[in-house]
Amino acid sequence: MHRIDRIVCTLIIFLALSATPSSAKQKPAEHIWLGTIITMDQKQPIAEAIAVRKGEIIAVGDSSSVLALGDRHTEIIRLEGRALLPGFVMAHEHPGISAVFGGLVDISGFTYPRMVDAFDALSVVVQNSEPGEWVYGIGLDPVLQADFSPPTLAKLDSIAPDNPLFLITQAMHSFWANSKALEAAGITQDIQDPPGGGHYGRDEAGNLTGFIAESAAAAPILKNLRKPLRAAGRLKTVFHELSASGITTVASMGFNPPPWLAKWMAREHFRPIIRQVVYLKTDELSYLPSSPDKGTAFYRIAGIKLWHDGSPYTGTMDIHDPYLHNDVTVSMGIEEGASGEPLITDSVFLSQMLQFDSEGWQLAVHAQGDASNEAVCQMFQQLGRRDLRHRVEHGMLMSPKVVQELAALGMTASFHVDHISYYGDALAHSVLGPERASQMLPIRSAVQAGLRPSLQADSPMFAAKPFHLMQTAILRSTTSGMQLGSQETVGMLAALRMVTIDAAWQLHMDHIVGSLEVGKRADLVEVSSDPLKTDVQNWNNIQVKAVWLDGRQLRP
Question: Cα(127)–Cα(470) distance, rounded to whole angstroms?
């Protein structure tokens, strides 16, 4: 009996020890940061210290209590005037397109403010190319290039008489091709405009002009550019460029490389350098898993990208009132009285939405114009409210009524705020007019309605620079210094949320990244100064000093 008592007693003691809280047995922190910690956690927005072990945040709080979790092996990082933030989350970019277009001839307005200089540079490349070799240019810009005029077929043929020549605008919604390119792609005089939106430019006699609107029409040429291995090396470079800007999670919105390639190119020394969330176009459904939420913390196919309308810079954005008519809109190929139209019929679009929604996939819908956003909102109402966090992409013109209705449906929006900084002057004076331009991108309204919006650069249209995006959302200043829509400015913390926790929420990743909280993964960015104590006018000058992904330092 005594022996049994001893066994029972021993067992009780063993179980009691096993139930000891993990904090009492917790191994020391591997890294501790001391200084200004901006957590994006509403319960504790600012902290003095943070501790990380095995890629997980194990403590956030005051310096003395966090330091107590370290030992002589713990690396202590003193920020000393710098600040630590969650790694930035970009909810709408195009790494695949960036990789493909990154190897093309730069003829952008950022590099060549005059079109004549861009074409001179292009001519040099053509002269150094073998006859019959394709030549691609990227960045032709009717807004930023003051002397822009639509290139004629004769002009393009004179630049490249022996080479297929294909030019892509900065907005990536319109293109020009010479005769050799049209011939090589099988685009002949009798070709019909595609059902998926877009059209081929023609003169009064019905002859092709070389102008092409929207990617569906340009598909016979673009398919050559999209060959996976063509841009494999560039894709890794793109991921490194994103990381250098402090971006630790990126959402790829269509034009995706095969998953095996995207995963491989996002690794360095067999370890990930960025988290990828992927939205597939309808022509990429061969990559779609059998059911949602299959994937890892570093690569996951989240949903489907659908296009309802096009771009304001081609006149394919669907709006209620016509575009302005002037030299600028004429140079963009926008006809007088045009107001755009959907790229797809509402019945076909709704059937796609219903199908993917019923299968549990998140939808990301490209809708720019006010007419497009109204139509899309009505179709979402037919789906009903679900916790899939369906998204509207870009949302240039979105009425207050639509904002409220989308919020009531539990939806969200990702705003292409760089329209304001780079093209705001042209939109106000030449494309939409001052009244509509001041109402575009209703970011504050979206925040107040509970849409939890994110900010995007839509790269490679513009470089994915989080502080530039946030600065624009806060100030809404154009290149000339004009403020567009003061009523839609946001505060510093709201802007920070849109590239951290709210963007992570959009991607269904807010449980692991987006804020610095105990239990989340240690995706961290160290910046040169405290943004909350820096003049907003200088936010674009804040530098990324170090980046950590899952507790591992990536840079410097």
Answer: 42
